[in-house]
Specification:
Strand content: 25-35%
CATH topology of the largest domain: Dihydrodipicolinate Reductase, domain 2
CATH superfamily of the largest domain: Dihydrodipicolinate Reductase, domain 2
Structural class: alpha/beta
Radius of gyration: 20 Å
CATH class of the largest domain: Alpha Beta
Distance between the termini: 53 Å
Helix content: 25-40%
Largest sheet: 9 strands, mixed
């Protein structure tokens, strides 16, 4: 490995600009040497903004010519499988955006190939690194609620209310809000409650827009292998006020309960809020649980997104893992596990039955 990890960036969206490129360029042992997008003009604009010397419109050419060590794939979901497999053929370490693929079979093939290639691989589930979700994970691991009985996670936005074409809601290019926001929530459910055993789902399609329709609202009931009941709600058609996204988490167990709220406005920090409350057996009222300094690090407490440019989070965490020769988490295996749950949810909605995640079959024994 060279002294500085040489990255290529595939994708020139607002998220590449707001998340990946600031994070990558903030790490002292990484450099972005190439960017690739079908929109050459947009790629050129970001290249000028971040001082990226090479611009491509063809990923194969970038893989062959740019002298890369690693690549970030932040293209639309229907391109993840082909781009990742080509990057692995080129011997590159890979960060791929969620959802990892369009099907569990594709995602499992990606994970198997990455393992066989011996490279570092990671599925970019943003909420693995935000302060409120990390602190919840620490509290749960420390036994704050004890054995988990039930978990409720909602993540809603109004981004699909306008009826404009968006590839995420094109049924031939993505899995709708289930894949977009729902993949984050399924990953959190696995992280907090363990592997998912079976799924029931109702997927709604409310706003008419061009293209083959995909769901813009999703309700899932999940059961973990340990018996916890999990409720997930993801929506792109909720009115949440002046922009942004709203997330709420509530977890109840035999020793207590935890609640968390997160409002995400934009990447400037304006309008962002996160709060955690807890109550344990013998207590009558929820108490605020401030997120400790060990999680915040050097990030501004009023701007939680700064963990991606000042802490070991996201792309920066991946770089540290790569340089240390360690596996990155969440890996492609985690992405594949989430994708398998998405497969089961799609089948559950279609059949009106609970679906066993491992077999993909209706759960005939438990109803």
């Amino acid at each position: 490995m060279r002294e500085r990890v040489k990255f290529g960036m595939i994708g020139a969206s607002w998220y590449a600009d707001g998340m990946h490129l600031p994070s990558l360029t903030s790490h002292p042992q990484a450099v972005v040497v190439a960017i690739c997008s079908q929109s050459g003009a947009r790629a050129q604009t970001l290249a000028q903004k971040y001082g990226i010397p090479q611009v491509y419109t063809d990923p194969a050419a970038m893989f062959a010519q740019a002298g890369l060590d690693a690549v970030v794939i932040a293209a639309p979901d229907d391109q993840h499988y082909a781009l990742t497999m080509a990057a692995l053929d080129a011997g590159l370490h890979v960060i791929c955006e969620k959802e990892l693929a369009l099907t569990g079979a594709q995602a499992r093939a990606m994970a198997a190939k990455a393992e066989a290639a011996g490279v570092t691989h990671m599925t970019f589930f943003t909420f693995r690194w935000l302060p409120h979700t990390r602190y919840l994970a620490e509290l749960l691991a420390g036994g704050y609620v004890g054995r988990i009985f039930d978990c409720h996670i909602s993540y809603v936005s109004g981004g699909g209310r306008d009826g404009e074409y968006k590839w995420r809601f094109d049924g031939e290019r993505g899995n709708g809000i289930l894949g977009d926001l729902g993949s984050h929530l399924i990953d959190l459910a696995r992280w907090y409650c363990g592997e998912i055993r079976r799924v029931s789902a109702h997927l709604g399609h409310y706003v008419q827009r061009p293209g083959p329709p995909a769901n813009d609202s999703a309700m899932l009931l999940l059961e973990s292998a340990g018996g916890a009941q999990i409720h997930i709600h993801a929506s792109a058609v909720a009115h949440v006020g002046p922009g942004g996204l709203q997330q709420r988490i509530a977890i109840h167990g035999d020793q207590g309960a935890l609640e968390a709220d997160f409002f995400f406005g934009n990447f400037s920090g304006a309008g962002e809020m996160q709060a955690i409350r807890g109550v344990r057996n013998g207590e009558r009222e929820f108490q605020p649980l401030p997120i400790p300094d060990s999680i915040w690090g050097d990030a501004d407490r009023d701007d939680p997104m700064q963990v991606f440019t000042k802490g070991p989070a996201g792309d920066r965490y991946f770089i540290d893992a790569l340089l240390a020769g360690q596996a990155a988490t969440p890996s492609f295996h985690d992405g594949a596990a989430v994708q398998t749950v998405i497969d089961a949810a799609l089948d559950a909605h279609r059949t009106g039955c609970w679906v066993d995640v491992q077999t993909g079959l209706p759960d005939q024994v438990n109803g």
